Amino acid sequence: MLLVTHGFAQNRTITGTVTAKDDNLPIPGVSVKVTGSSTGTITDVNGRYSVKITSRATSITFSSVGFTTQVIPIGTSNTINVVLSSDNRQLGEVVVTALGINQQKRTLGYSQTTVKGETMTESSPIDMLGGVQGKVAGVTISEKGSTPGGSTSVIIRGYSSIGGVNQPLYVIDGVPLDNSRPNQNNYYDFGNNANDVDPNNIENISILKGSEATALYGTRGSSGVILITTKKGKAGKPKVDFSTSTTLTNAAITFTPQKEFGQGWSGSFILSENGDWGPKYDGVLRPWGPTGLGTGATIGLQQLLKPFSFIENNVSNAFDTGIELNNHIGISGGSETTTYNISYTNVNSNGILPGNYDLFKKNEFAVTVGTKYKNFDVSTSLNYTARTSSVPLSGNGNSTTLGNGFYGSLLQIPSDIPIKDLRDYKNLFFNTDNYFTPYAENPYYDLAENGAHYTTNHVFGNINMNYRLTDWVKLNFQQSADVSATYDKRWSNANNPAPGSWNAGNNVEGATRIADVGSDFEESWNTFEYDSKLQALFEKKISPSFTLNGILGANYNDRGFSWIQTYVTNLTIPSFYQINNSTVSPISYQNTSHRRLIGFYGQANLGYKDYLFLNVTGRNDVTSTLAPGHNSYFYPSASLSFILSQALGLKPSSGITFAKLRAAYGRTGSDTDPYRIYNTLTATNIPVTFGRLQFPLNNVAGYSVNNTLFNPSLQPEAIAETELGAELRFFDDRLSIDATYYNRTRKKQILEVPIAPSSGYATEVENFGTVRNRGLELTVGGTPVKTKDVQWDITYLYSMDRSLVEELPAGLDKVVINNFYDVNMVAVKGQPLGVFQAPIPLMENGHVVVNSTGIPVIDPNNVGDYGSIQPQFHMGLTNNVRVKDFTLGFTIDYQQGGKFYSNSAYLLSFVGANPETVYNDRNVFIVPNSVQANGTDANGKPVYVENSTPINHSNYYSYYNLSDNPAMAYRNIILTRTFVKLREVTLGYNLPKAFVNRIGISNAKVSVFGRNLYTWLPASNHIVDPEVGNLGSDLAGAFGEDASGPPLRYYGARLNVSF
Amino acid sequence: MKKNFIKSIILSALFLSVGCKKITDINVSPNNPSLSAATPEVLFPSAVASTAARVGGELNILGSFWSQYYTQSTIANQYRNIDSYNITRYDLNADYNELFSGALEDYQLAITNAKANKQWGFVLMSTVMKAYTYEVLVDLYDQVPYTQAFQGASNIQPVFDKGHDIYVALLKEIDDALAQNYSVPLSSSDASTDLIFGGDMKKWAEFAHTLELKMYLRMVNAYPADAQAGVAKLYANPDFLSVDAGLNIFINTPNKDNPFYEYNIRSLNVTTNIRASYTFVSFLTITQDPRMASYFGTSKPTSINQGDYLNTNTALGSAASPVQKPTDPVWFISAAESHFLQAEALVRYPSINGGTTAKAQYMAGVEASFIDNGLAASDADNFMNNSTNDKVNWDISTNKIRTIIYQKWVSFAQGCHALEGFFDQERTGYPEISDVYSSSPLYTEDTRVTPSVNHAGQWVYSLNGVTPNKMFPKRIPFPSSEVDRNKNTPTAVPITTPVWWGLTAQ
Prior knowledge:
Chain A is mainly beta. Chain A has 10 helices and 58 strands. Chain A has a 22-stranded antiparallel β-barrel. A 5-stranded mixed beta sheet of chain A has the order 10-15-16-13-14. In chain A, strand 39 (749-754) and strand 40 (763-768) form a beta hairpin. Residues 1-9 and 296-300 of chain A have low confidence and may be disordered. Chain B is mainly alpha-helical. Chain B has a two-stranded antiparallel ribbon with strand order 1-5. Chain B has a two-stranded antiparallel sheet with strand order 2-3. Chain B has a two-stranded antiparallel sheet with strand order 4-6. In chain B, helix 5 (93-116) packs antiparallel against helix 6 and helix 6 packs antiparallel against helix 7 (163-179).
């Protein structure tokens, strides 16, 4: 002190290193300021600094976002090393944003959600996002299938692309992942590739929802981006993480049939019928199944007998309990310069269908290694997933070549027939000759004799190099690859009811079941994707008040697939599935696709005094899929983050710990699939409603003008999104609110629009259509109790999305997105995207017009609006309670409103099992308020009189059959999407450290969990869970389901050990 | 260092942008040939198959129910909407779509390209098939787009043209094609692409003339003078088909078999939806027609009254189904039809001189039908000469047109062109409409008149028909594929309203 007092302008230099208390690693970019002056510098990449001080200086202030500011008095030493401890309150968090850039969340002007790896694996899902359902506002995750390893649909902020992709882009450690799902319309759900990412090996995922957040991904990020960061090694001695879980599965919810009427048709008991249109249950012993079996010397006369009464739990008893085993081991560690992480997961699952026909096996290896040398660091990761599954046919297949599906056949069993008993499908009474009805097959036969095997080998990884040029510029190059090779085989067996057997016409109705001719499909599907990225990252403190970070980069993407399928029908030798096992020639199809994209992009983030941040991005893409002249497009975005609490200098004592306002505007462009520019011919293959006529014929080739009219002037789709939001935290962060409003417009959508066939084409690829989505996302978090031993956290989510079709092309007033029978799911101007239109009755002066059989006539000129696919809102409620070493968590997921088409409901209506079919106790009735034509007036127009023709027993079922009564039947078939689910419950116990440490374990946790434990559906839906579906994962699949199986309920136990 | 960095960025950007053109030049589909490969040799056979697949497939089912050859089984449901006349704009869309965007689009492009290369043989072949296909559409829908059709992106909402205008234009197209020198023989490889006549241009000219004759005769109600003048023009140099014009190339293999068989037998889960209609069976029975066995596999088939599919009598579960084979042909115009058309022309216009008589043509028609059913011409002669039924035996017939049309109706049950029976009834009123249902004793012996008469073969209103006032269907509604996508689609007309050439009062 003496020296200082007496010294005069005696300059000297202080140097030192700033490290973090948590990990002892150097902290770059720490502001080093001579207290009370403008002199200062920042630490370099190694945390070192060097600052000149005058003798007047008394102390140095070290500050960095996320760390507690420290003021160190200047002593005599010229070296001051500082250890900063992290400041959780200020830090908020560092999150991963587009292109894998770590940014402080506080600087973001848009909504971003991080989900930690632990959250994702709490209930041991084998698909990546199974544990995130109901936990992120604005993200709708549904498991579509009922077989293990089935596909998952993820929709962020609602549907907005009519014909394109509404699924998000998955990026794993910077590698875009091909998430295509082969054969999605062939009723075999082989799952999607994103599920090849092992949730056990995920550090966290970052969900980017809006266009501003995803703008740097361009084209493929236009429906949101899910950024996956895998676990990396940390310096230190090797750490081993081991987890094992066993999960049991069963059918979460099955349909509820009506309980009053049993087997038969038109009111009569008929032994060979597949319907519940028979008489009322009377409990009297009646025969069932074939009569006269084994007549003669063989086994004598036999007849099955059972009481004619409803069987409770008949459907749920058709299923078994499935089991899933999920084992994971991870080893990580490293030195100061080199780190590694090795992970292996094995999943073994057998689903809820009896026998080994729904199996799923997965082996996942992942290796990540990173090393650094001076200013250079390199890391690489490699992932390999091998997946094999046995998949049953889903849906009401009903084809002689494809065979029938288990569930489609199950729906056609009268409710008095014990389904479980049919399992022995080779039994004399239940085999293909003698199954009780010729109109359907034994579902257990379908299960055992028709099926598919699927094998995929999937490798993805990257090499990532960084070179720090100066303390404010870093160069980054990343090359990634994602390749997969898939092979599947699908088959259906051949069978023909033996002559003279029950199903060969020797039944009470004389009906014959057609032979199954059998088939074998062999299919291979190979995908590739190579992605290169070269970028420079800048970080500069321009002045004491201003900081600037930025990126300049270029991206090159090359991807595609090749697919080939060969199949043969009419198997010569049953049960032998080879292409050569037929006298019929095999048929082959192939498809190759290849596309490239080059993008140049830049981003700048300007910060002012740590409370105002402006982020600007721009990207220009050149794509191979649009025509030259239209294939280069630019799109910018800008966002603003304003930390109100800091700007106003609010003290925590005010109750407000943090307040931030966000505003963002972003645009993205989107290209299209390859080969939609130039018109083509196609090898002629003519549908004949059922079956086809296919060239070559008579040794002559035939080519037809492609029914799709392509478009050489296609322009990129343009998406513009405005987002406003606020993040507020109160009372020491005990209460937090994050609210977002967005308004997104997707213009010039590229779509294959159905056009009038008289144009010569069936569809035209067009730029058209504007869909606007507006929505609200709200996350409220609270910690009502927080003590050393007890903590209770609650998170409440609310989200709603409203889409509006603003514009359609060329004077069209609607575009059909998908259809089944007479139901169209359409885009109609002025309405939400995805409205169900179906026939309605013709009205005459307010009366329903019926035909001569008493059944309503459809309105020939108008269609009815049966609602849209769009739910009114979603809500989620997650509770986590920790009491000492115990944790309890549960999530409730609630979706209100929206509609879907259910072909299960149709089938159940057709066979009379739908509870809606007991109207008027199935007594004869006259359609209320109906009129009937009777003669014509002077102008030849029909004269209507009060209807006196009743719906009688012989056509009662016609009233519920959509082909006989399309005007009314759809009311029972288009169902509501409303559900409430107890999505997840977990109970965990961390074994006391004192105990486990003694046996060399650092951490051990046991937990029991359940998912989809309880599903509540409204009274108007007795049929099917609205989340399942087998028509695809995107917008067209939102149409509904076709005899899709029940969703799964999971419950199990898990052990995690680290040492 | 900094300079180097910037340089490297600029260099790589340059490289990428120079390379861009090549890099992005990969958008020509490897999966499909480009449009420049669209020669008539690949388009024509494709289009012919499209016509055959739809007219001989689902439309043949419509025609055979509405011509009362067949009715819906009592133990299955597939075709109940057809059998009950419950056809809405949602039905039969695939037929309309394929005939326009599959068949006609390809004929049109084949014609355009063949004209450009002066391949007049292909011009004639494609024009005749285009006219045939269009005629089916006009006859079913009354109006369809013609003048503005096939314009692709430049007009995706074509206006509809009046059926008569389309007929006139098609007849002119055929005349123009016939006016070219089409007699240059096709090369043998080109000839093989003609799945109908193997490149025999003489037969194509006959087909063209016969089609024109058929179209003129369609106009007898609406434009009698034009019909007569047109027929007279053709008879200036009569040159009509004496062989079947159609596809007879089907084999017993999935996707390469007869479309009616492929649809109704091979690919449907119930093969016995279609059963013999009592209307047809009663006529074949009363006339002791030997074709019964080839139609239904037995000379005494059990049959179901038209549209009585809700009948719970289990005996009807075994009613006869039609004999269907994968190798059955699809006729566009059969030899029998050609002869019956000529017979009708000669009866209607006695002044024309065809060098033949109406009776000879009538008998040739029945003989051709017998031959197509595997019987001999002599069987046909015996059948006609020995019959005491005036709908069979020409000499005792008091109404030659009625006799011709009845036998023509019987002939259309073979060759997958049953629609023609339906059209003829709408045009001529034969077979007549019975005023009693076929289950009534009065149908076989109507004692309300003396002497009592038999209504066998007369059409009955389907038991579960849904049209008002038991009116028969005369057309089908514009398909929703057009209604929903083309605002120029005319307002829906009841399916009981006759098309422009139909008899307005029956």
